[in-house]
Amino acid sequence: MQKTAEKISDEKWDLEIKPQASLFNLHLKDVWNYRDLLGLLVRRDFVSFYKQTIFGPLWFFIQPVFTTIIFTFIFSNLAGISTEGAPAPLFYMAGTVAWNYFADCLTKTSTVFRDNANIFGKVYFPRLIMPLSIVLSNLVRFGVQFLLFILLLVYYMVIGNNIQPNGFIILFPVIMLSMALLGLGLGLIITAMTTKYRDLAFLVSFGVQLLMYATPVIYPLSEAPEKYRDLIALNPLSGLVETFRYGFIGSGHFYPGAFLFSLTTSLVVFLLGLIVFNRVEKTFVDTV
Amino acid sequence: MSKIAIKAENLSKAYQLGEFSTGTISRDIERWWAKLRGKEDPFLKIGETNDRTSKGTSDIVWSLKDLDFEINQGDAIGVIGRNGAGKSTLLKVLSRVTTPTTGSVKVKGRIASLLEVGTGFHPELTGRENIYLNGAILGMRKAEISRHFDAIVDFAGVDRYVDTPVKRYSSGMYVRLAFAVAAHLESEILIVDEVLAVGDAEFQSKCLGKMSEVSQGEGRTVLFVSHNMASIKALCQKGILLKNGGLAFQGDVNDAIEKYVSNTKVTSPEDIKRLKGNGEVQISNILINDSCETYANIFEDITITIPFEINNIGKRKLEFFVIIYDNEEQAVLSFFQKDSGAFTLIDETQRNGSVSFSLQNPLKPGSYKVSAGIFDEHRNFLDWIDSNTLLNVESNFHYGGPFDNRAGNIFIPVQWKI
Questions:
Q1: How many domains is chain A partitioned into structurally?
Q2: Are residues B192 and B242 in the same domain?
Q3: Residues of B with CB below 8 A from A120's CB?
Q4: Domain for residue A12, yes or no?
Q5: Per the domain annotation, does B54 fall within a domain?
Q6: Do B283 and B255 lie in a common domain?
Q7: Which of B93, B120, B129 is opposite residue A17, by nearest beta carbon?
Q8: pLDDT value at position B374?
Q9: Residues B8, B223, B392, CA angle at the centre, nearest 5°?
């Protein structure tokens, strides 16, 4: 028996379950093997959202429409904040649609361990699948809302407003990817840090709300007071939201420095999130 | 020589008891500091074996401790042990839900684990959607699920409901569908926790049939945890007995069960509750098949033994009786020695003794407690005790169908005249 055991140890094992693997072994191949699950989870989120409703996916419209109406009323009509010449509803819808995508990615991924503790405790699959599916589900949701935004854009162009989408529109996919990476990365870090001590989780929900005001969503960056402008530009989201709005409705400016800063920050945060998440996913079941 | 499918070396898993709060953070910092300096975790050193009953000094316990074993390809292994012996922790480590604290497991082939039936089922989705989702969660590719789709629906018997949301399913259908998905996994190793406790007896026997088909017919390795010794016997050839996180025995399944049962042979005096009696003669224990916890099938021969001690020595005529209660404290059967016209005579030289009788177990599947007592010749109680002796009658599927749902609690074999 001893001899065979030694002989076999030379053979290749398919899997070795050990206490800790290397910090940078991210099991990305495993994630790829489970890509069907990713698709099915996205489908699940989408389908279960509008099951037993009459209007179905139309409900995705409700939130941005009402937010836009209220923002227009408060910030434009009451507070009189400039929208740099763009029609107020269009300006706010561009901001909220883009912002919502980031905020949804962040808040939903930041509770992924806690929300899925039951399923994670019963079956193995690459844990990263779950946050990835959230980001993709949100992308579907964003897609629907984005459609609404485009309709509004076309409407304003048809009725003759001076709206000039420009070449920066081609940065759109990059902006979306960058937002996804940033939201996901931050979410992964937060969820990994809250498995044992949940204190941080309380910060997230209102932290995201506050962060919105530190991002040029309801105001253009150029309108921000001079002394805070650099500070706001340090927020990696500023470059993204600003560029998104500039590309589509031509309102605002393109700040190359802020934009590049946003991209690199997103990438760094995402990689950091991956590593932290990967480290925690192995034993979080014992502490969550 | 068959090949090894799973090999565990020094496998250990520590758990921290108690709540996590501000109190635990200082210790976390201490551990982190020790790790930073490359030292051993200071708190694992003081870990204790997982004995739930004694209040230990440390709140780190070893749920698994230095486990070494090898499992050959194609074996069906029954994992047994008391509650808290580490069975579920072992399965969790093997199915990669959590990682071991030290040691390693090497595995050849794909592992599919079924620690719970219906993990990831979404109530709003239809049966069809859930089959795909659940299959993917368990590690199947979409094409694989499509290939087995009809077989899954067929096995679960939910053909008509396949496009209805599973929240409208009866709980039985839900469980059947969930097991059906798992049963059709194409993995080399299948890990099954006590999931068969749910579902009716007919379905349980169907599942066991499917599992033995998987292990014997297809040559896949099966690890099976259950408290139902009859299904372990039926399904597995080999057994692993865990005790307090360690390996107590590995080998033939019958030996493992034997060892498991004999572990529980001794009743402590606290487990005996004296109901009546003057104490002149006292029953010291009640044993079924020489054990305080017995697993028996229906119609299997069992022997009930009552050892007793004589405190007030003298010549006496004793008359014993035994009452069997179900788990709702209802008496289901009683036996009186005088019914057979017999009694037990003791004389001045005797200080202890024992009586016993055998019967073909007539009880419906379930768990039973036994009580016994002694009268003297004037029908005065010498003793009457409630013991913790358990008779577990297994849900049985060998006699052409389960007894669980039959009318009545007691079954006697009779000769039918045609």
A1: 1
A2: yes
A3: 97
A4: no
A5: yes
A6: no
A7: B93
A8: 92
A9: 120
Q: How confident is the model at residue A137 (pLDDT cuts 50, 70, 90)?
A: very high
CATH of the domain at B29: 3.40.50.300
pLDDT at B267: 54
The β-bridge partners of B324 are B333, B370
What distance in Å separates residue B261's CA from the closest CA in chain A?
Answer: 29
Measure the CA–CA gap between A60 and A76, rounded to whole angstroms: 24
B138 at interface of A, judged by CB pairs closer than 8 A: yes
Residue A128 in contact with residue A29, Cβ under 8 Å?
no
**Confidence tier at A224 by pLDDT (50, 70, 90):** confident
A25 touching chain B per CB within 8 A: no
- Across the interface, do B108 and A14 touch by the CB < 8 Å criterion? yes
Q: Would you report the helix, strand and coil content of chain A in percent, each value rounded to 5?
A: 75, 0, 25
Under an 8 A CB cutoff, do A4 and B4 touch?
yes
Q: How many other CB atoms are there within 10 angstroms of residue A61's CB atom?
A: 15
The answer to whether B16 faces chain A, any CB pair under 8 Å, is yes
Q: What is the pLDDT, as a whole number, of residue A39?
A: 92
- Structural domain containing residue B167: 4-262
Chain A residues touching B98 at Cβ < 8 A? 282-283, 285-286
Each residue of B116-139: b (16+ CB within 10 Å) or e? bbbbbbbebbbbbbbbbbbbbbbb
Say if residue B307 is in the same domain as residue B219: no
Place of tokens 């496009």: B163
- pLDDT band (50, 70, 90) for residue A267: very high
Q: How many structural domains compose chain B?
A: 2
Same domain, B195 and B335: no
Residue A4 falls inside a structural domain: no
C-alpha closest to that of A241 among A214, A204, A209, A210: A214
Please tell me which residue of chain B has the smallest CA distance to A2.
B70
Q: Are residues B197 and B249 located together in one domain of the fold? A: yes
Q: Identify residue A211 by its one-letter amino acid code.
A: L
Of B236, B262, B288, the last residue of a domain is B262
Q: Residue B328: what pLDDT?
A: 78
Q: Which chain A positions have a beta carbon within 8 Å of B25's beta carbon?
A: 197
Give the pLDDT of residue A9. 47
Q: Is residue A17 part of a domain?
A: no
Q: Give Cα A47 distance to the centre of its chain.
A: 20
The span from the CA of B113 to the CA of B240, in Å, is 18
CB proximity A121 to B under 8 Å: yes
Residues B257 and B279 in one domain: no
CB nearest B108 (choices: A13, A17, A52) = A13
What is the pLDDT confidence band of residue A175, given thresholds at 50, 70 and 90? very high
Q: How confident is the model at residue A22 (pLDDT cuts 50, 70, 90)?
A: low
For residue B379, give the CATH number of its domain.
2.70.50.60
Q: What is the total residue count of chain A?
A: 288
Q: Which residues does chain B have with pLDDT short of 70?
A: 1-2, 18-24, 39-59, 195-201, 262-271, 395-405
pTM of full prediction above 0.80: no
What is the arithmetic mean of pLDDT over A147-163? 87
Return the pLDDT at A150: 92
Among A177-181, A192-196, B189-193, B203-207, name the one with the lowest average pLDDT.
Answer: B203-207
Residue B413 within a domain: no
Residues B348 and B388 placed together within one structural domain of the fold = yes
Per-residue confidence (pLDDT) for residue B46, from 0 to 100: 61
Helix (H, G, I), strand (E, B) or coil at B7: strand
Q: Could you tell me if B235 and B330 lie in one domain?
A: no
What is the extent of the structural domain holding A194?
26-46+56-287
Structural domain includes residue A1? no
Q: Which of B99, B107, B137 sits opposite A13 (nearest CB)?
A: B107
- Are the CB atoms for B300 and B233 separated by under 8 Å? no
